Amino acid sequence: MNERALLEHIYQTSTQSDSVLIGPGDDMALLQFDSDKLLCGVDQLIIGRHISKDIQPELIGRKAVARCFSDIAAMGGIPAGSLMTAALPSDTDNAWVIRVFQGARDAAEEWGGPIIGGDIASTQEASKPMFTVTTFGTVPSTAIQRNNAQIGDVVYVTGEIGNSLASHHLSFTPRIAEAQKLIESIEINTMIDISDGLGQDASHLASTNTQLVIDAAMIPLREGATIPKAFSDGEDYELLFTSTMKPPEDIATAIGFVQRRTNEEPKVVTTKGEDISMLGWAHE
Amino acid sequence: MNERALLEHIYQTSTQSDSVLIGPGDDMALLQFDSDKLLCGVDQLIIGRHISKDIQPELIGRKAVARCFSDIAAMGGIPAGSLMTAALPSDTDNAWVIRVFQGARDAAEEWGGPIIGGDIASTQEASKPMFTVTTFGTVPSTAIQRNNAQIGDVVYVTGEIGNSLASHHLSFTPRIAEAQKLIESIEINTMIDISDGLGQDASHLASTNTQLVIDAAMIPLREGATIPKAFSDGEDYELLFTSTMKPPEDIATAIGFVQRRTNEEPKVVTTKGEDISMLGWAHE
């Protein structure tokens, strides 16, 4: 099956939606959009680097989409649509590719951002297959940015942290609904989703003069997780945010606070003074 | 330089624009959008497969963007923004990557669709570097689709065709302005940009019961081009469209007409009866 036939096979099973004015198969897709502000982001999933090739293919596709939708949640957004590409070594099994796309398609539709276009290209044998997912969203109220922790804020996290690679990284649901509930009930100063590791991602919330202080004992640990590994495990896809207001208890747990920082100090420390702002996935 | 540092270096030189509400560096970008309809598409450029690695890096970046913007033109759209990712073997020269991104950034800005986000990932040594560009656009009037040639239409093409690999494929300007002028002056039934080859791309304009008949003698050949190679060269990035109305002469040339087709007949033939609907880039 060549690139085009494979793409046609994948898209012929796509669900139609009223918001998809032009779907896959044309030069570009056209999406009816419920806003005049476009939230957009893109992420690459390399098989054998970011995820094992032995994982069930539907779960690979699901994860490719889920990690992008987690970014939408972290911005305070709602998914509207997605594009998905594959770059595949010439000896890739077509049935495997189709299953990856099916997993992606089902997840994207379930979460309200159907896949409306894409591209498939061949690379040389022995290179790693990769999938790139672009997602679009709307922002019902205000987009919530990074780098905006305020002195006196409390630091909160949704769900549980650590040991995500046991299974959570394949089964998590992006915290889109939780983010919307939070935004409706409290004012959030800054937010991110934890993908690289609690330590490193927390450092992106600090501003030029604020430092996050994390109390390790307060972190809600996932089964099998340990401190301090929970600081660096990553792939939690939970929301980390700061606020002066108290969020609903069933959504988030307080794990620290924000204080003044001078330029020489780390962006994230534990209550014991350890610098954890570098802990997590190494972007080499 | 690691993935993140490279990305930061690339984006710190990005021009700010009023329409970019949140630029690179957050979970996602936020774009002020002049429409409630989103035109979106994505394309992958693999170095050493789709383009030679010996090409000047700025021109590689320019082309990665230009071919996507050519799709916007073919839909009757106006660029609004772009995302660009790179998947790079671990031994890639950072200076080369930065130059590719600079070429892409300059082109994207010039054509009105600045790069507002992206991702960089490392792949194994000896794999081919690749760049993925996602583009967004608006549609001022109606989006023009494929597969909609009407019996009695004349087939038109902008510019010149053939021998594009001599230099045109690196220097072309996407036909965005020409498409808008065409839409303002005539009614276009169907349109595509010629990337894979005149023969193959023309076949996408045919509908279930229409056939395009191309008069080879009428094709405006680029210097050094020959017929029939012009049918399959591809990379012209000219607009191919059909209409019952006459477009401005300085924009397009008539090269054929549309007639009734039965299921057994090819989608595109020459006036001499040759089937040219398969000629062009093989999507293997």
**What is the C-level CATH assignment of the largest domain in chain A?**
Alpha Beta
The interface involving the most residues is between:
A-B, 64 and 64 residues
From the coordinates shown, what is the CATH architecture of the largest domain in chain A?
2-Layer Sandwich
Structural class of chain A: alpha+beta
Outline of chain A, from the CA principal axes? globular
Helix content of chain A: 10-25%
How does this structure look, described?
Two copies of one chain form a homodimer. The radius of gyration of chain A is 20 Å and the shape is globular. Chain A is an alpha+beta fold and 284 residues long. The first copy, chain A, has seven helices and twelve strands. The first copy, chain A, folds into two domains: 3-138, 60s Ribosomal Protein L30, Chain: A, CATH 3.30.1330.10; 154-270, Phosphoribosyl-aminoimidazole Synthetase, Chain A, domain 2, CATH 3.90.650.10. In chain A, the strands form three sheets. Chain A has a six-stranded mixed β-sheet with strand order 8-10-7-11-9-12. Helix content of chain A is 24%, strand content 27%. Chain A starts with a helix and ends in a 14-residue tail after the last strand. Chains A and B meet through strand 2, strand 3, helix 2, strand 4 and strand 5 of A and strand 2, strand 3, helix 2, strand 4 and strand 5 of B.
Which characteristics define this entry?
12 strands, 7 helices, 60s Ribosomal Protein L30, Chain: A, homodimer, 2 domains, 284 residues, Phosphoribosyl-aminoimidazole Synthetase, Chain A, domain 2, 24% helix, alpha+beta
